[in-house]
Amino acid sequence: MTDKLPPDALIEAALLTQTEPLSEKTMRELCVPPLSPDKLIDVLANLKTRWQNRALQLVHTHEGWRFQIAQAAFERLGSLQEQRAPRYSRAVMETLAIIAYQQPVTRGDIEGIRGVAVSQNVMQTLQDRGWIEIIGHRDSIGRPALWATTNVFLSDLQLESLEELPPLTELGELVLPDLIEPAMNDEKLDTEKIEAKVNINLN
């Protein structure tokens, strides 16, 4: 029975079988009796050590704790065509950058910064990935939707908060080069234009 499993085994099993990150509260209450915060820290530290040289690694994200494929393994698996992640165009990446660094923004704001119209396909791509969402509407004519990044965006980039976002010039590397269309490697994000429009300090 599960109540006979030691806490570390039970928590390890939960982390391996759940598709979403687990909060510390959820993991503490999974055990009988519930673990103290200090005991849970010990359990998680031991699990991180146990898995540190394997293909899966235990990581803490904005949404909680989860196992994910180690970066070195991920890069190797990327060579398998059928397992490649979807690639994103320059338009998608520039739109994501503007939303991430200037949120909340309207679609009109994004178009004003990029200087071109933003297609519905671009917004839908970012929505389907779970990286952006509507958080309200601006109190102006037409009440346009206000867009912002999600907790999934922070979790996928392994960030605790928006304050940890890197300089804009590094965003493409953080999202992973394998997710960007090959043609974009030569063009790069138009970071100078975006920086000038949204007044981002790249340091």
UniProtKB/TrEMBL annotation:
The keyword Cell cycle applies. One of its GO terms (biological process) is cell division. It comes from the Bacteria. InterPro entries: ScpB_csome_segregation, WH-like_DNA-bd_sf, WH_DNA-bd_sf. Pfam families: SMC_ScpB. Keywords: Cell cycle, Cell division, Chromosome partition, Cytoplasm. This is Segregation and condensation protein B. It comes from Neisseria animaloris. The lineage of its organism: Bacteria, Pseudomonadati, Pseudomonadota, Betaproteobacteria, Neisseriales.
